[in-house]
Amino acid sequence: MANKEALRELQGRLAERLHEVKTQERLQSWLAVESGGCGFLFPLSEAGEIFQCGALVKVPHAAPWYLGVANLRGVLSGVVDLGRYLGLRGPSAGAEPAEGSEQDRVVAFNPSLDVNVALRVDHLAGLRNASQLMQMPDDGVVRPGFVGARYRDAVGRIWVELRLAALARDERFLRIVGAL
């Protein structure tokens, strides 16, 4: 019970901070999440509502990273396991969402992106803004177009920006059919 209360408090604080961020000066801000052991930053302008990982309806012949369809506040949305999609864990690694940890969350894309999809992440890590992070120099590694800059926080953790608008247009991301 204490874990559930702590999670509710975290979500309440995140909601308050989201509201504060919207009313403050336009400083670059992100929702920080963890998936597959890595830290990611979703631009707040592109991230939508956060949900607890609930019941999913499987889609036959879908790619292993496409977990199924969920009813998120009356909207049917596809749910993608971010760690699997990025190759950070194999299709059989980790528990299925129904058996996942209490920290698993589903982050919907902002409705302005006009795509009904959400990303399953392992853990919410709060909000970050540009004043808390130092952008790392380009290392020359070729990355997909939806991968933005890399940042380092005060404790040395690396965070990678994922541009959800670009991800929503990525050809591989849109091709959910797996091997038959």
Automatic annotation (TrEMBL):
InterPro entries for the chain: CheW-like_dom_sf, CheW-lke_dom
Superkingdom as given in the UniProt entry: Bacteria
One Pfam family matching this protein: CheW
PROSITE patterns named in the record: CHEW (PS50851)
Domain CheW-like: 27-173
Record protein name field: Chemotaxis protein CheW
